Amino acid sequence: MQTLGVPVVLLWLIWGHSCALGGKVNKHKPWIETSYHGVITENMDTVLLDPPLVALDKDAPVPYAGEICAFKIYGQDAPFEAVVLNRTSGEGVLRASHPVDCESQKEYTFIIQAYDCGAGPSGADWKKSHKAVVHIQVDDVNEFCPVFREPLYKASVTEGKIYDSILQTVTLVTGNIRNTERLSYDKQQSYKIMVTAFDCGQKRAKEDVAVHIDVKPVCKPGWQGWNKRVDYEPGTGSRQLFPKMHLETCGGPLSGVKAMVELQTNHIGKGCDRETYSEKSLQKLCGAASGSTDLLPAPSPSTNWTASLLTDSGRDSDLIYRFDGRQAANVPDHVVPQNLTDQFTIATWMKHGPSPGLRAEKETLLCNSDKTEMNRHHYSLYVHNCRLVFLLRRDFTQVDTFRPAEFHWKLEQICDKEWHYYVINVEFPAVTLFVDGVTYEPYLVTDDWPIHSAKIDTQLTVGACWQGGEVGTPRFTQYFRGSLSGLTIRPGRIETQKVISCLQACKEGLDINSLESLAKDIKFHFNPAQSVLVVEGEDLDSINTAMTKVSYINSRQFPTPGLRRLHITTSVQCFGEDTCLSIPDIKSVVMVLPPSEPRITITGSNRLVRPASDLRGPLGVAPFKELHITSTVMKGDGFGGSRRPGVMEVMHNLDYCDVLVIGDELNPERESLEIHHSVLLGKHLDATNSTSGISIYGVDSMAHYEQALRQVRYRNWRPATLSERKFRLTCSELNGRYTSNEFNLEVSVLHHSAPVEHVNHMAAQPQYMRPVHHPLMIHTLNTHMSGPAPPAATVVIVVCIAALVVIVVIGVYRIHATHQEGSRDDEDEVKDSEEDWDNSALTITVNPMENIRGAQAQDEEVKEEREEEGEEEEEEEQVGGMTSAESDNSDEDEEGGEDVEREEIKERMQKGKLEWDSSSITY
The whole model's pTM is what? Predict the structure, then answer.
């Protein structure tokens, strides 16, 4: 090879050169890369290729055969062309034949081949390379904003599913919406979202688009169309709870439906909205017999044994005592009923839970035991291991035999931590228990020997039992843990079922409107408190109609505001099966809105002036004769589409009014404040009085309270040192929930003063009196008149004036004499010529010439007027300032003393001794 290497190389070059010079031989195809990748920016024409576009040919450097003459592109609608830049080197370039747009097409793929120049100048016998693939990517120039094709997109999905694509929003590009979690129809029925778009250059759409997606429920059995909250406005009567409710059964064949609606009000007062008047007022309101003793009254100076107990105000001023196992109270001996016979009643409200500890001890509500020496329990009421036990040990009689002594009841209510009303009717030897109006007989009765009589006083206690003997120090034991209210004992008779039901009746509950419109196959029933309603039926449509008529009602004028929970449970029966569908329970609430609170207002004259003689009279004076009681509330008044607040007067009941003495208490030796029992007849009212005032109580109308208060009398039979007495009046509704203003009244006393020989021409009217205007105000003599009056006319006028004066004097005298007593004390020695009278302020202008008439002429006129007294009674009432209504009210009270006073007047007139007050007469 070494000897042959050079000659062989030279020989090959010579041969190749001779072939090239020949130019007629094209032995080889052009060669290019197998694939190209290019990038072009839209609206530009040059494509940047990788690798560069270059074709090679082994025939080079032979002219034509070794040169590249063309690049050809194969592809549908490829907007590109290839251009040869240098035939010898084979370089080329790829250009866009027309502008390309990224928004219309972002990528292109096509085929390219290279061609040589052939065997000669004519290009004959040219050869082409293999096919290469070219991928072109169009770079975007961000010149347009994305545009949504629709103004609104809608879609719907079924609850409980995950969707890869809920909605495709087609713009110039494609968008997709999908859910990331399972949707619930009960939670949300529809969604409204806003969507925007960005192009590849992050250019935002000019306008967003709304997308509405509805959630379709999967058919599930259950109640539909009900509200979770129903507002109740006080005073609107019965309110439908579910007017659009219906039961969805998903087409299953049913044979019966049973729905139970429960109104839960355990958190309100004593278990529901009840009247919160005092126990005595409620008993009278319900028609209970009188004579019951309240062992847990509100603390006061006269009922101070409950002052140390813990109270729980509850709601609406409902008086509740809470016992925590450490409190108890001794009932005073003068309060304890002493005449318990074979018939009596014990009643109380109780709220009690399970006793703590493994071995529960007795918890005593009421206990009557020996005060000293021994610990015998004569009768008691206690709880033991969630059992209610009543102990009654009879006194020893001639027959020394076993007697029923302990009565046991085992009830769930005793330890359920809810309020219940317990009544024990004793008709020895039978004892009956009522719980919330339902009768329960004892499940166990044990006998015991009677208690031997002993001269040992007993002690009645509440909240524990008194242990007075066999211990070093007397103490309480068997403490009660729970709450009590309205604990009473009624000796001598038992309570009726009607009264018991009234005392514990709820004022709120469930109701059904339009019973007559219910289908015949519908059955329904309430529990006694109307807090549970059960509706049954075979037809689904009938059940749906019945449930839409279920209502809530609250008959209290001022109900307790707040939530009342509703719970509905449903069971469905199918043909041949016990239960075929599971219906979810419903929980809803009734919101009782706050009532318009009343404003109780007491008005009247706040000052009363009376002569001392009136106070000494047998009837005294009526301080509240002009009293008025009104009640107003603020109400929204719909007018012209708007609600304007306004004041309106309402009528409702009161439950007590207290008249308190301001200052020193009454001295029973010389004064009293009282009301006659006859005034209270025909009304639901009672009254008690003491040296500190008088209290009228009972649930009755404001009008009846007005009538009673106007008849309250104040007497003082020794008013010599008294100048005034002050009283304060307040009234209440619903046991103090709403109270009136404090109405203060002052009674002023006028005493006799020294007589005067002349009349007061300038007597001023007291401002607190109502003036009585008389039509005759005549002055006939006037020195400034143009001429003298005719003598005849003057005489006539003088005579008329004289007659009027006589009439007025007689009227004043009669009123004065009516208020005089038959006997006078030392004060009568001093004549009172300037005595003022309430409602008798007279302003009379008389001719001064009347002064020349003597006392003799007046006496003659008096005799004439005595014969005409029957015809002048109406004028006498007007002159005295007493209205007809006042005289009617006072006739009954003063009828007894009127005859005596008339005889006194007659006797004084026969003697010709007239006494009157002339201080308020102007001549």
Answer: 0.57
